[in-house]
Every structure is written in structure tokens, then in C-alpha cells.
Amino acid sequence: MKNDINLSRRTFELKDNGPVSGTPEEHDLFELIQKGIASQYENIFPDKFAPKTVVIVPSLTLDMEILSKIKGSIHYEERLLCLLMLLRMPRTRVIYISSMPLSEVIIDYYLHLLQGITGHHARKRLTMLSCYDLSRKPLTEKILDRPRLIEKIRSLITDKSSTHLTCYNITPLEKSLAVKLGIPLFGTDPSIFYEGSKSGARKTFRACGIDMPDGEEDLKTKEDIAGALARLKRKKPSIRKAVVKMNDGFSGDGNAIYKYGDFAVDDSLEANILASLTENMRTVAKDVSIELFFDKFYEMEGIVEEFLDGEIKVSPSVQCVIGTSEKIEIASTHDQLLGGDDGQIFLGAIFPADKEYASELAVLGKKIADLLAGKGVRGRFAVDFLSVRQDDGRWKHFAIEINLRKGGTTHPFMIIKFLTDGNYNSEEGVYYTASGNKRYYFASDNVQNNKYIGTTPEDLIDIAMFHDLMYDGTAQEGVVFHLIGALSEFGKLGMVCIGSTPERAKEYYDNTIRVLDFECGDA
């Protein structure tokens, strides 16, 4: 006998998806929603006890073909886990979305860093959501493809006036997501993103009267590149190398080095350079072919600039925060650690930058921030420099690029800020904790050794506890790990080593490497 079964279907009442992405209607609505961020920045952000919700989307919305060349790039979504420490504010809620579910071991590791808040109390105010999608697409695109996930996020937002969206970088995808959620972004409208491109940055530096390497911007083709290289050679006949950069490259992986051949500086120079481009250019990212480089350059456009030589040169950066056009903060300075054959790849950072020039960088950063604020730039951004010691002992700073996004120096600084509740004094070039003690750190995103492959997050925590590598909240020193999820598959992780002196911070780093090498070595 056939049984009749009554099936009930759960229906999801999905609300109107809003205006179509990229339309004037979306832009107008975005501008209206964005008006709320200034009030939040001034009144809600600094109030420890104000009810607030932060929606965190750590999407690296960058060129996915280039990004895929970085080992474990999917795990870079973990870099913004430092923002879980916002839960130290007892009435703050955090919604964190990732491509794939993150290990509870990793979440517990960050929550244990909270001071004055129990893990249970923090966990009640934390919602972790996932797209369950490992495909090679930006996380934000994955979210936009899932209307039920968007509706879930909406349902968790109880007061839009005290909620904002924070992302790694902001593109039209993040703009669309903000409109669909009805909450403002803490960052820059992507319609003015040109200001943060390599070409736009050179124009900003020129307008501010800040030194930069000789070169040209807004280049589109191989012929443009060859012409710029030829003009550079005519201007500086002794030049040996130049850098060709995509407008939207990141971590040096959008750069290539051109080595000048033994060409006569005559009427045939440009033609000879054009003919030698493929042979004489080498991409910084070893997995990016010269053919792919040129394909991406045609898409993004870019610049050519001289490769600066100097017996003593460093690569510092200054990080700024623009809350409103009137509220501009010099958040930090760093000496960046660069690697690769020509020192183009970001590996890590030392905080603060050397006192010999840290205050000079702050002045230059403020000048740039003032100009960008007037153009509507908001949120965190960083300016990278190349600084060369002159014969008289002074440093000459050449501005290299502007990154209108969170970068490799953002999450280490957020970690020390959240852990010590201190501030960076840009005039002195010194960071002080809330209790007035100086602190420094040595940080790296690129601790990698094939011997570490197979080491799970649980293993790492066990090793850290056994060898006393955990951050000590009482002493306000120690090691904070990140990119933990990349360790087992790629043998890669990051760490921020905080110490009472620069030397002590570096000792924490060196000791941690020794421990990992010992524990993960051959049995």
C-alpha cells in the first residue's frame, strides 16, 4: 500500500537584492549608506562600551591568477583574525566570513589572547560563517553568489547605525556587498581607487612635492614601456636596471626587472629596447611567466621607474588612518623586510621604523594623507618608501607606492595595539603601551620550511606551550602566530614577536625558528 507523505518545504523569504551592481543607482545608495561611517568613527569606534557590530570579510579581491602563485593564498583570509580581539570590548559583536570553515583550534587561540574577557563571553558574541567554497574566486564574490548567506548576515545585524563592514581591500564587489547589507564600509570608494594605483600614486607624490624614482606612469603597451625605458636611459646613461610595475600589483608580485643591454644611446635605442623586452626582463614572482606579466599589464596598465641603487638602502613604510577629512592619524611606521633576487618581495616588518628617520616618514605620510583625504580617501592605507643613506649621513626618502588597503604591516600593528592598548607617537617614532612602556616587534608573513609540512594547528599550539612561546599578557611580550591554517599543507605561517627592545623582539623570532626547526626536523 502506497503511503501518502506530506512534505513541507522550508521557504526562505529572500528580500529584494537591491540595485544592479555597477549602476548609478547602486552608487547613489552606497554614498547614502557611507554617510554613517563618519559618525561611527567619531562616536562609536572609540567607545569601549558602545554596542556595535563589525562584519569582517577578509577577501583578497585581487587578480586571482597572480594571487594563485602565492603559496597558501586561501589562508591569507586568516590575517584579519586579529580583529577577533575587538571582542575585548564587552558589547561588541563580530561576524566573520571565510571561504571555508576555520579550525576551532585557531579561533580558540585568538580568543585566549583577550584580556579581561572570558572565552565563553567572547564566543557568544562571535559568529563565524563560511561559503564552503575553495574555488579560485575572491571571497566577496562567493558571498555575493549566495543570497541566503547574505540574508543570514542581515539577520544578525540588529542596528545598522552601529554596524560597519571591514575588508582587506575594497573593489566594486565589496561596494555591492555593503549596499546589499545596508551598512557602510570603513574604507575608500573604489570609484577613486586610481589614487592608490602605481600611476595614481606617482601623481600624488608629484603634487605633494615628495621625491620618487624617475620614471613614467599611465603606460599601456609594450611600446609604451620601451619608450619610457629609453627616455630613462637617455636621462641617466649610467642606469643599469629599471622596474616595470602593474598598476594593481601586490607584494612585489606585479613587478618585473628590466636589465639594460649594451645599447648605444642613439636613435635606435627605443627599437632595441622593445626588441629585447622579453629577453632582458625578469618577473619578480618566479611562477609568473613574462607572457602572463604582459597580459596582466595590458589589463591593469602600469609604470616604469628607475631601480634605485645605494650601498645602504632600506624600505620603510608609514601607515595612516583617515577617519574623516579632518581626522587623520599616523598609525605606525615600519622597516619592511624585502626578499627575492632584487629585493622586491614583501617578507615581513620591524616596528617601529628606525628612529633616525621615523619622524621624517610621519611628516611625509601626513602630507600625502592630507591630499588624499580631500579626494575622499578613507580608512587605513600605507605608503611605501625606498630610503638611501647619502654621503653626508642623511637619508633621502623616495616614495614608491600607495596601498589603499590593509597590507602586510596592518595586522601585526593591530595585534600589538589590541594586546597592549597603546599608541604610536609619530613625533618620537616610539610605541608606548597603556602603562607607558615601550614595545617593539619583529613580524613575518612568510616563515616557510618544507620541514613544517604536516604540522597541524594543534601541534603548533602544543609546541608553543611546551617551549614557552605563547604571548605573555602580564609581561606584554612573546609570540603571536597567524596564517596557522597554511602550516600543515604548505609548511608556512606568520608570526608577530613582541619585545621590550628591538633586540628582544628579534630574539623571540630567532628562538621560535630554532624551536620549529627542532620539533619539525627528522625524528
Which labels suit this protein?
single chain, 523 residues, alpha+beta, D-amino Acid Aminotransferase, Chain A, domain 1, 3 domains, 5-stranded antiparallel sheet, 16 helices, globular, disordered N terminus
Please tell me about this protein's structure.
The chain is α+β, with helices and mostly antiparallel strands and 523 residues long. The protein folds into three domains: 24-186, no CATH class; 214-306; 313-519, ATP-grasp fold, B domain (D-amino Acid Aminotransferase, Chain A, domain 1, 2-Layer Sandwich), CATH 3.30.470. The chain has helices spanning 24-44, 64-67, 104-111, 119-124, 139-144, 147-156, 172-181, 198-208, 222-235, 269-280, 290-300, 358-374, 410-420, 457-466, 487-490, 502-519; strands spanning 52-57, 92-98, 126-130, 163-167, 215-219, 241-246, 255-259, 281-283, 302-306, 313-314, 316-322, 328-339, 345-351, 379-389, 395-403, 423-425, 430-432, 440-448, 478-482, 492-499. It is globular. Strand 16 and strand 17 (430-432) form a beta hairpin.
